[in-house]
Structure formats: structure tokens, C-alpha cells
Amino acid sequence: MGETTEFPVTVGECLARAVAQHPAGEALVTRSGRYTYAELDHVAGRARDALWALGVRPGDRVAAALPNDTDVVASFHGAMRLGAVWLGVNRNLAAPEKEYLLDDSDASLLLCDAETAAQLGTRRSATRRAVVGETGEWSDALASADPVELADVDPFAPAALAYTSGTTGHPKGAVHSQYNLLLPGASLVASRSYDSSLRKGDCYPLTVLNLQVLTTLLVAQVGGCAVIMDRMDADGVAEWIRRERVTTWNGPPALIHSLASGAIDPADLASLDEVWTGGGDCPEALRERFSARFGMPVLATYGLSEAPTVVTIDSRDGDHRDGGSGRPLPHLAVEIRDEQGAALGVGETGEICVGAVTEGPWAGAYRTMLGYLGREEATASSLAGGVLHTGDIGFLDADGFLHVRERKSLVIIRGGANVYPAEVERVLGEAPGVAGCVVFGVPDERLGERVMAAIEVTEVSVPDLVAIESFCREALARYKVPERFVVLPTLPRNAMGKVVRSGLAQLVS
Q1: 409-508 — its CATH code?
Q2: Under a CB-based contact definition with an 8 Å cutoff, are residues 165 and 423 in contact?
Q3: Domain boundaries, the chain
Q4: Counting Cβ atoms within 10 Å, is residue 284 exposed (0-12), middle (13-18) or buried (19+)?
Q5: What rounded mean pLDDT belongs to the chain?
Q6: How many CB atoms lie within 10 A of CB 355?
Q7: pLDDT at 411
Q8: Mean pLDDT, to the nearest integer, of 445-456?
Q9: Which residues pair with 110 in a beta bridge?
Q10: By C-alpha distance, which of 324, 409, 330 is closest to 363?
């Protein structure tokens, strides 16, 4: 690795530096309380001790299905200090989806709320559960666990899992080291001139690993404050921003739409100087409407769990290109390649690949993910040649802005949440009476896209669409269930028998 800008390489070191420099500075605000850096350091230490008392050892996988509050932050920091591997499990997932993640990751412990414990019931036996609340095993461990003395954590060992679906319809676990989790924050801090006045608000679930990267791991590097919101509606987000004087907020296009179209007082957002959202997912007209109402630009981003998180972003001054997703962070080299792996020129469309820059202070700093858990073939394909092959299609313009043309695996971005057609098709294909299916997105001004499905049926009679929808709701999170089903005698297929997706959106127009 070449000479690079210096930054902490373990999560424990990151927080220790912040404590040394800003012990009384406000580090974290959640629904449950406020924490200085000294207090957050104590909370993280107690979480480490509690995990140890519950049987977790270095290298074990710890899953957390928790709401946006102190415990989801504590469990993450505790696992990092212990040298365990942390996995966030979205509470909105259906029981079979949660079970798959726990099985595939071989999680030894699940920290969850009472609702998730009840949802899973007795269906799980391999993973021990500890319900998080005012009473219970987790609370007892936090209160009574003896302090643990541990060896230094290896910054390049597996530290966290981020599950992302692929063409098989089953999620794959991208494995990252602590070094990888800290590098994006260091790069953002350096390129955006953040300081201790940074108050970063996030309403996305912190069970998403990318959000852990962009909250306490980012703000601690400048002594700022992470504001963890427990609301994801316009009124709730505006309340959080106003009350906590949030300066940077990251939200999905659906929320951008609600804020721009509703009755929110512009004064409620007056503390903001940055608003981020997905670049290709936010229509330019919506971006302009928000800017006109609140007097600030909406900054486009592009990122993915395998990177991890942000790859490109608009600059703080709002410099933007229509349809663009910003420029690469300073430690990343984004290249467009053709099907043979050759680099393409300006304006040429191909696969987006991500690697390390070779010159300057960040030369060689970027390291790819460690791979997909238990998926050697997928890992080899994704990391061929020492760069990350994203599977996304796009181009770079003459000014270096990335333009994404097609999301990975035809992913549908609904209200800021990723819906992978292959995953939904896997479930829908098992519904009674369904002979074949294809899932696709259609544009929607508020949500970005809505989920639709075309199905072939096994009988000539009219299928029971209510029963088919009910079947999907049992196995999928609500936002993944198609909102409309179109019944076709046969799905359009090419000579190889593969469904031709072009023109499907016209079926529901």
C-alpha cells in the first residue's frame, strides 16, 4: 500500500481517538438518550463484555434485528471490540428471509426485539436469541458482565456481513474488514472538510451495514455527532432535523418527494447544508422541486454494499450533472469496462468497476471486500483482476461524473429500499397456479419505482390473484410484494427460453 492519508484502522481505535480529543463532545443521539464520546466508549465496552458473557468469541457471527436506537449502535461497537463478525438483519423482512440470513451466516447469537422473537417463534433452533429491552438476558448481561481483556483486533480480518441479492434470488453475504468499514468515512471527511460541527442524521435502518459505516464511524473521525432517527416519514424526519440541528441528512427519493410536496416549514430544515440521496433513483424534476422549496441542492450518490457504501457523490457546493451520481471519492478509481474487461472511454457504456487510485495520498488505500461468505465462484467473478465488478451498467462523462444506466441484477428501488426481482420471482414461482413469472419495476414519482409482476398460469381458468398475493406476503417483506399482477398466456421469451424484459412496463401503463 502506498503512502496514504492517516486514519484509524479499527473501530476501537477510531472511538479511542475521539474520546481523547473530544471526551465531552456529543457523539450520539437516539430516542433513548444522548451520549458524549466518553459515555459512548463506556457503552461500547459494556456491549463487548455482555457479548462475551453471552458466549460470543472472536470470529463468531453476531446478528442484530433491532430498531434505530442505542442498542443497535452498541451491539455493533461491542462486536467490533470483541473481534466478532456483525450482521444486521432488517426487521421488515419476513420470517423465512430472516431465517435464511441466520442460517447462511451461521450466526451464534441474535439480538432482537420482542416482535422479532415472536415472529420467529420456535422455527429457529441453531441461533441463540437474546431479546433486547428493559429486562431480559441482554440487559442482565450489560449490567453484570465482568470486564474482558482481549488481544488487539486484526483490522483486516472479517468484521461484518452485508447481504445483497444476486441472480440466484438468494442473498449473498459480502464480508468486510474493520479497515474497509473505516476507509469511506476517512475519505468523506478528507474530501468534504468536515469538522466537529458535523451532525449527521440518518433515518435508514442501522441494521444496514452501510449505515453503520456512515454514522458513528464517519462522525467519530472529526468528533461530530450521529443523530439516529427512529422515524422515516416527512413529519418525523423534519422534527428530528429541527430539534437536533442536523447538518447532513441522507434519505430516499420517496422521502425527498414527501418533504418537497407536503406542508413542511422550510425553517424546519434550515440547519441542513447537505442532503444526500441515490443519484439514478431521484428524478431531476424532484431534485429541482426540493431545491426550490428548501433552498439547498439534493446531492446525488452511488454506492453498494460490496464497496462498501458510497462510491461517488456530488460535491458539497451542489455541482451536479443531470442523471449523474457524482464523482468518485478520492480513494477510489471508477472505470468502465466492456464484456472482455477492456477499459472504455468517456461516454462509452459498460460495466462499472471500482478499484484503488494509483497516485496521490490515497494511492493503494482501497481494498476490495474479502469476498462473499461461502461463495467462492461468485467471489472470484466479482473480484476478478483485483477490482470490484459491480454488475451495474453506466458511463463516465467528460467531467468525471458517473451515470448509472441499469442497477445490479435489475434491482428495483422502491422508496429507497432495494427489491431484487430474482428474489421475488423465486417466491412467486412457488405460488399455487403459477407456471412462470417475471418481476419488474415501473416508474413512480413518489416512490421512485413500484413492484409489478407478470405471471403465466398453469390452468386456463382465471387464477386466484388474491391467494397468490397472500402467498407472497407470507414469505416476503411487504415492500417486496408486487402491487399488481398481470396474467399472460405465455411470457415473452427469446430463443434460449429466457424471459425478455423489455416492454414489460407497458403491460401496466
Answers
A1: 3.30.300.30
A2: yes
A3: 409-508
A4: middle
A5: 91
A6: 15
A7: 78
A8: 92
A9: 63, 129
A10: 330
